[in-house]
Amino acid sequence: AQVTNVSGASCGTCSIAEALKQSLNTSFIRLTQSLKGGPQDVADMAHRLGVAEELPGVGKTLQEANGKPAEGITLGMYQSSPLDMATALATLTNGGTYHRPHFVEKVENSNG
Fold first, then answer.
1. Contacts of 51 (CB under 8 A, 6+ apart)
2. How far from 6 is each of 3, 29, 52, 64, 70, CA to CA, in Å?
3. What is the pLDDT of residues 49-108, one digit of tens each?
4. What is the largest CA-CA distance in the chain?
5. Given this model, what pLDDT does residue 52 score?
6. Keywords of this protein's UniProt record, alphabetized (predicted)?
7. Nearest CA to 31 among 8, 15, 47?
8. Residue 26: alpha-carbon gap to chain centroid
9. Strands 54-55, 59-60: pairing kind
């Protein structure tokens, strides 16, 4: 299937940040195609960025029945949790530095 962008949008060559901002499917497919390991490189990096390797009731993530990921991995074709996606994007925007996620129980000001 041919991958397109909403309303025919395009950026030619742009940064990952700009491609994310504009939600440019074609940029991410081209990125996947340019990697030596293709979709497997994307899956490996997603796991390093914090996406779970397994989900309860789902099993192994980011792969087809044959154990390999499809090219559409960069378009969100696989199930993942909101926390996984937030963690992965936070790691990406933090220059690749992973911080284990934690929940904030409350926020206080100087008056308590």
1. 61, 62, 80, 84, 85, 87, 88
2. 10, 14, 29, 26, 21
3. 878 899 888 889 999 999 999 999 999 899 888 888 888 888 888 888 888 888 899 999
4. 58
5. 86
6. Glycosyltransferase, Transferase
7. 15
8. 15
9. antiparallel
- Please say whether the beta carbons of 27 and 19 come within 8 A: yes
In this structure, what token pair is assigned to residue 100?
A: 């284990």
Quote the radius of gyration of the chain (alpha carbons, Å).
17
CB 71 within 8 A of CB 33: yes
Q: Tokens in use for 49?
A: 């960025």
Q: What share of the chain is helix, strand, coil (3-state, %, to 5)?
A: 40, 5, 55
* Residue 84, number of CB atoms within 10 A of its CB: 19
Helices 25-34 and 39-48 sit at what angle, rounded to 10 degrees?
100
Residue entry with tokens 């504009």: 22
